[in-house]
């Protein structure tokens, strides 16, 4: 009998291999267009990454009894949106980072203009793929497009990044910090779970509500752990400069709550996330494993 750790390791490896194979196919350098642009897109998407968002999408589909095949396309689209956001976040006009996933950021490896265009192209590719996703009816496709647009736009991830930039050097309350991260990080994580659930034609409102609570709580937990890694992590492990948030005077959970307080809050978020899955049986085990993984990860 497998342990939760080995079960999750097997699931994540299977997920990563399948998602990477599909992304590789979608980002093939053959065809028309700029070779340099396509190279930058491939560099940004296929250069590592934990594939947490696609994994959450597939796990949520399994939790509502749906075959993973119907969730593959939305899972890939989530990774494309995530990759685009990282390219733009790293730009000199944003966070001005030179290291991502242990190697040069896209604007350093190529140039700033190509990086901007690569991000733009990945975003539009995601919505194009979702609009043509097989295994899904038109109603479900439309619901997913609406979900992803809301999570990634000005009311979600992009809005959160804007708040983040406006908050540098300012003192925020814990409520203001949570508002920022519910948008910047949490919105796309919540969309990952909800898109997986929406693949099931018979998903109930109660199931969708429980999974939404799970994903929103997990999104905050992800950010708290990210903030802790910025304080305690090793640059060679986390793949980006340790202490970069502190250097830019960005508000974080450790800066507001202290390291011990942030760890206590992380534990509370994990408990709340797991409690939201009480209505699911063994079909929700991977989601439970994912929650533990998010709060214990080292990169």
From TrEMBL:
The keyword Acyltransferase does not apply. Pfam families: polyprenyl_synt. Gene3D superfamilies: Farnesyl Diphosphate Synthase. Keywords: Isoprene biosynthesis, Magnesium, Metal-binding, Transferase. CDD domains: Trans_IPPS_HT. It comes from the Bacteria. Its cofactor is Mg(2+). NCBIfam families: FPPsyn (NF045485). Belongs to the FPP/GGPP synthase family. This is Polyprenyl synthetase family protein. It comes from Marinobacter azerbaijanicus. The lineage of its organism: Bacteria, Pseudomonadati, Pseudomonadota, Gammaproteobacteria, Pseudomonadales.
């Amino acid at each position: 009998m497998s342990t939760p750790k080995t079960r999750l390791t097997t699931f994540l490896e299977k997920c990563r291999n399948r998602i990477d194979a599909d992304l590789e196919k979608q980002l093939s350098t053959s065809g028309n267009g700029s070779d340099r642009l396509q190279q930058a897109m491939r560099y940004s998407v296929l250069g590592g990454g934990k594939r947490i968002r696609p994994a959450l999408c597939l796990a949520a589909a399994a939790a509502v009894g749906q075959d993973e095949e119907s969730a593959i396309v939305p899972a890939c689209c989530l990774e494309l949106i995530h990759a685009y956001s990282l390219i733009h976040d790293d730009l000199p006009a944003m966070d001005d980072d030179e290291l991502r996933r242990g190697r040069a950021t896209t604007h350093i490896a190529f140039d700033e203009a190509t990086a901007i265009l690569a991000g733009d192209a990945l975003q539009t590719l995601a919505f194009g793929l979702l609009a043509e996703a097989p295994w899904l009816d038109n109603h479900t496709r439309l619901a997913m497009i609406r979900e992803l647009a809301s999570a990634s736009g000005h009311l979600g991830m992009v809005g959160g990044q804007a708040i983040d930039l406006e908050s540098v050097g300012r003192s925020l309350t814990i409520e203001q910090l949570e508002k920022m991260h519910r948008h910047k990080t949490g919105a796309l994580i919540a969309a990952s779970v909800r898109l997986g659930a929406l693949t099931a034609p018979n998903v109930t409102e109660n199931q969708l509500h429980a999974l939404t609570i799970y994903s929103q709580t997990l999104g905050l937990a992800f950010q708290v752990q990210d903030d802790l890694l910025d304080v305690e992590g090793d640059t060679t492990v986390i793949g980006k400069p340790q202490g970069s948030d502190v250097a830019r005077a960005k508000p974080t959970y450790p800066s507001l709550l202290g390291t011990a307080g942030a760890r206590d809050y992380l534990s509370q978020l994990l408990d709340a996330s797991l409690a939201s899955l009480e209505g699911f049986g063994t079909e929700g085990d991977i989601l439970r494993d994912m929650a533990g993984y998010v709060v214990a990860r080292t990169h």
